[in-house]
Amino acid sequence: MKKLHIKTLMGTIAIVFSLSAEAQYAWTQKTSFPGNARTAAACFSIGHYGYVGCGSTTSSSSSYTDWWRWDKNTNTWTQVASYPGAAQYGCSYFTIGSKGYVGLGIKGSTKATDLWSYDTTTNAWTQMATFPGVGRYSAFAFVIGTNAYICCGNPGSPPYRTDCWKYNSVNNTWTQIASFPVSGIETNLVFSIGKYGYAGCGGNGSTNTSAMYQYDTTSNTWTGIASVPTGSTGLLCPANFVLGDTAYSVSGGAYFLSDYISTNYMYNPTTNTWGTGVKFPGTDRYYAVGFSIGKFGYITTGNDSTSNLLGDLWQYGPVSTEGINPIKAGDVSMNVYPNPSSGMVNFEYTNLTTGNTKLLITDALGRTISTYNIGGQQGKLSIDESQLSNGVYFYQLNSQGAVLTTGKLLIAR
After folding, report:
1. What is the tens place of the pLDDT at every residue in 355-366?
2. Of 6, 10, 251, 380, which is most buried with the most CB atoms under 10 A?
3. How many CB atoms are located within 10 Å of the residue 254 CB?
4. CB atoms < 10 A from the CB of 163, how many?
5. Helices (H) and strands (E) in the chain, counts
6. Is 351 helix (H, G, I), strand (E, B) or coil?
7. DSSP E strand boundaries for 157-238
8. How far is CA 51 from CA 10, 47, 100, 235, 370, in A?
């Protein structure tokens, strides 16, 4: 990649407009969690609501049973029914259909095995079939269809568990499945995409790992996949969510928490590759929780490297077009050629009526590669991006923070 450069053009310029272009992604801070700041909380999402509750202080001397609902449409929180379970932090949690599920976990010397479902229509918790394995906390859970899968976890001391269980929400029954393929782990990364579950990272009490595995429900087998690119430090307690067919792992700790990170890792199951998304701008944290609503992902709570408890809420997703002047944006006419290009690209535009306008070239992860200052109502700008590697990039016409138009630029030689 070439270094950021800034060029100024006073005069005429030209521009293309593509409503179908993929949006850039960004982090936006939302209204903070209104309960006590906490770590090792639980969460789930249903419809346009996110639900967050339970958790503890960093010393684990006290735990919480309160639950709160966040409304994406109004960016407001409302308290809902408290959790009635035996333990309140390090719980396993997931969503199936229109219900949220929370269970297991730890409170004092109690390593719980109870499971509860939350009904949004009645604002009530109902106890479900008891988990048949040994009581534990920090066990991972993912969902495929109407089944949830709970594996591994900490029974109170090493060795940690490797057993895995399937919960059938239709029949309210448990069935043991193939064990996790490596020594038991806790505080790990877990998600599901399509018919597969994915889990890994975490630690076993003596070493950390960044290895990841895929679970196939059809064959009841685990297969190793690409490791998260953290190197030998491993990865503990990241928050995670899934947007479309891409999984995200945000922040967490490495090398037994001596190094908290702000990296936003992205996993593509089609290519079995990891990349990095837009860097997390909040406080680096451990034991945060993550959930997704539509095309947006969210993380909240957790604790930082000095054991400060956190309650800020962050949204990750496509850059909002709210606030754009529809007349100005709609009037801009833009043409980009050649596209695909070998490096030299012409941008022609007309009807540009705003000042302080910039043309930005970004990569697929939203990182700005080049910025050009432009002026005048119409004209042509020729730029040289021949140092870019082959691939998909994006251009954006931006005026004082408002996106006037955006589109896709393909570099191919």
Report:
1. 678 888 887 666
2. 251
3. 21
4. 19
5. 1, 36
6. coil
7. 164-168, 173-177, 189-193, 196-200, 212-216, 221-225
8. 51, 11, 9, 25, 40
Q: For 23-43, give the DSSP string.
A: PPEEEEEEPPP-S--BBS-EE
Tracing tokens 């009645």 back to the chain, one arrives at: 122
Which position has the higher pLDDT, 393 or 167? 167
The one-letter amino acid code at 340 reads P
Res 391: pLDDT: 84
What pLDDT does residue 253 have? 84
The pLDDT, as a whole number, for residue 305 is: 86
Report whether pLDDT(13) > 80: no
Query: Tokens for 12?
Result: 């005429």
DSSP state of 330: H
> 109 in helix, strand or coil?
coil
Select the more confidently predicted residue: 407 or 354: 407
3-state secondary structure of 328: helix
> Beta partners for 176?
165
Contact 349, 379 (CB under 8 A): yes
Residue 125 makes CB contacts below 8 A (sequence gap 6+) with 81, 83, 84, 85, 116, 117, 118, 119
**HEC assignment per residue over 45-62:** EECCEEEEECCECCCCCC
pLDDT exceeds 90 at position 267 = yes
The strand order across the sheet containing 273-276 reads 239-243, 246-250, 264-268, 273-276
pLDDT at 333: 75
Other C-beta atoms closer than 10 Å to the C-beta of 5 total 13
> Domains of the chain, with CATH numbers?
6-22+322-411 (2.60.40.10), 25-318 (2.120.10.80)
Q: How far apart are CA 243 and CA 264, in angstroms?
A: 13
Whether the per-residue pLDDT at 211 is higher than 50: the answer is yes
The confidence score (pLDDT) of residue 161 equals 94
C-alpha atoms less than 13 angstroms from C-alpha of 236 in its C-beta half-sphere: 26
Per the rule left: phi > 0, alpha: psi between -120 and 50, beta: everything else, 186 is beta
